[in-house]
Write a structure and sequence with these properties.
This protein is an alpha+beta fold. Strands 2-5-4-3-1-6 form a 6-stranded mixed beta sheet. A hairpin with a 7-residue loop joins strand 4 and strand 5. The longest helix is centred in the C-terminal third of the chain and has 11 residues. The radius of gyration is 14 Å and the shape is globular. The mean pLDDT is 96.
Length: 132
């Protein structure tokens, strides 16, 4: 199983929306690097659900329930299906992530504009520990 981080503005589609809906299509990603990460996802992989914008915090864990499929007519873009697993015990803020040496090389910190990024097993464990 691989680990990922998915960013969304909570005003557009937040963790509470995913809980309410029970699943969603993670679509609309229009960045080549982020789309490549979506293509690499496998069913059963888990992802941190991260609120960007003013919140800037990982708030929950989602699971990839379907691998990438075409998103739009262009052919370059893909989407995956995700479902909620559980909320994090406490949100892990961007400031907390940046302040933890174990996360210094985390893709989301090094390439902060990407909406989809990989998370190593060690980074995943560190974030879960920060969450309590």
């Amino acid at each position: 199983m691989a680990f990922w981080l998915l960013k969304s503005e909570p005003e557009t589609y937040g963790w509470d929306d995913l809980i309410r809906d029970g699943a969603t299509e993670w679509d609309g990603v229009r960045n080549n690097a982020a789309a490549a990460h979506l293509r690499a996802m496998k069913a059963g992989d888990e992802a941190l659900f991260y609120h960007s914008g003013k919140d800037k915090a990982a708030v929950g864990i989602a699971r990839v329930s379907r691998i990438a499929r075409k998103d739009g007519d262009d052919g370059n873009w893909v989407s995956v299906a995700i479902e909620p697993v559980k909320p994090l015990p406490a949100p892990v803020t961007l400031a907390a992530m940046k302040g933890d040496a174990r996360l210094a090389q985390m893709s989301m910190i090094r390439q902060s504009r990407l909406s989809v990024s990989p998370v190593t097993a060690e980074e995943w464990k560190a974030i879960l520990a920060l969450s309590g």
